[in-house]
Amino acid sequence: MALWDYTVRRTIILIPMFFLSTVVIFSLIHLAPGDPIEIMFTETGHPPPREVIDQVRKSLGLDRPIYVQYLIWIKKLLRGDFGFSYGGPFIGQSVLDLIRSRFWYTIMLMFTAQVLALVIAITLGVIAAVKQYSIFDNVCSITALFGYSMPNFWFALILMLVFGLKLGVFPICGASTAGADFTGFAALSDLLRHLFLPVLSVTVGYTAWLFRLVRSTMLDVLSQDYITTARAKGVRERVVVYKHALRNALLPVVTVVGMRLGFILSGAVVSEVIFAWPGMGRLAVTFALNRDYTGLMGLSVIIVLMVYIANLVTDIAYALIDPRIKY
Amino acid sequence: MFRSGRAYIVWMKFRRNRVSIIGAFIVISVILMALLAPLLSPYSPAQEGWIDPPRKFLPPSNKHLLGTDHLGRDVLSYIIWGSRPSILAAVGVVAIETAIALVIGSIAGYYGGIIDNVLMRFTDLILTIPNLILLIVAVSMFKVRSMVTIVIVMGFLWWPWMTRVIRSQFLSLRESMYVEAAKSMGASDLHIILHHIIPNCISPIIVTATIDIAAAILSLTTLSFLGLGDPRMINWGTLINDGRRYLRSAWWITTFPGIAIFITTLGFNLLGDGLRDAFDIKIRG
Question: What is the pTM of this model?
């Protein structure tokens, strides 16, 4: 099957890409001046004697040349050994366990936001492009520009202030009501209520950005000759817009959505921190504030993997939408 | 003013677009605010009464138009003084990014072939790793997080997008007749790149840079908000982070600096959009 071969080929390309990104992340951490151990100890305010520092450094293998350190690290990583957190509130805990317990919360947040944003942006973007310069188009475009320029951490706080603190309609902290032992449907509705504000804060900026993209590609496509031809043939306008134009306009949208997963992820980091959503973004900031470098490296690896899997899915989706793609 | 020529046409187009005029107006106002901070601001961080605990949590009033924060600082003054580091840092990031992108983008676009392939694969690689995560990882490892290190790190992480823009310009321009002509007269590669091609990709660079300034302001304030900025710096994001704890009782501490960030990035985005329409270019990444 051709699509299967294509998928396998794309997956194989991702392997060297993945290793290269681990090199980039590893060097980023190690090229920063200052040695993590020393920083870790000076943070505490009472630096222990030189020998202790050297001993810790040696036990962690930090005295070896950087490429040896990388090889040791990557070897362990491939065996699923992400090491232990060494600093901050999670000191001594397995990094992989820490990530595992938070992974699905972030996925839930990002996935919901992604689906919502796609549905809203494509619907509004198509209508706005078809009715260019109408009141509808102007209102949507200006709103999008506002949503796009707004700092999302600030927007999240405003949501918290209005919906959580003033109106009290949505919970503003965590993923479930503390102390309440819900089961079944009640647990689900509790989770969704907690999910509402974090998702909203991630979705708005991203939808605004996506809307602009859909609108401009759609405008581009609508001015093409084959659209004029279709109209001249007497094809109904609905079919022209949704079958001829939209399918072509979606191609660049799909590419960019796959490539800019980071956009939604950075939104997730901020909203997790603000709404105390127990996800990986909040974990990343905790690691960073405590300069926990095994934690940060482990987390970055998982995030990079996530991005590559998303890219793979995008590639396959692209091949499915565009019959011109050769497998 | 020029009565003919490209600049004039661009200006005429730009002027006709109301939205870009608003953008330009906002950008100029914010820059003026930063430059004239000592004259405009009721209080100054260098003065005695900048931090004044007895004055803390005052709601907006005639004396303190936007209220005071948890240390008794005047929020309006903080916003005015905060515009300086925000704009300066964002411009710094974009300057570093552009310098790197010019080198990599022009080499990749001009020479093509294997060089282009290797450079662009690397560019894509950096582009796929989520920006904020990369930034958090890079910034957290510094012993002292100063504004300068943050700006340098960010500039070094941001070049891929601009590089793609410059490279795509080079790809089309290197086939042009005047490059052909210069080559036939024996001009060196460096001469062609510097004198014939780069001057012709100025407009996409300006547009990308303007929009990137907006993005850089957002990223820098996000970093400060997360507590990963320069702690000694007056920054809008830091004030929002400080005010977060008092959201219920003192909403003005978070609300007003947020509006300041919003208006500033909106201005740069509008200006960028307007310039893109005026230059009549399509930016392909």
Answer: 0.89
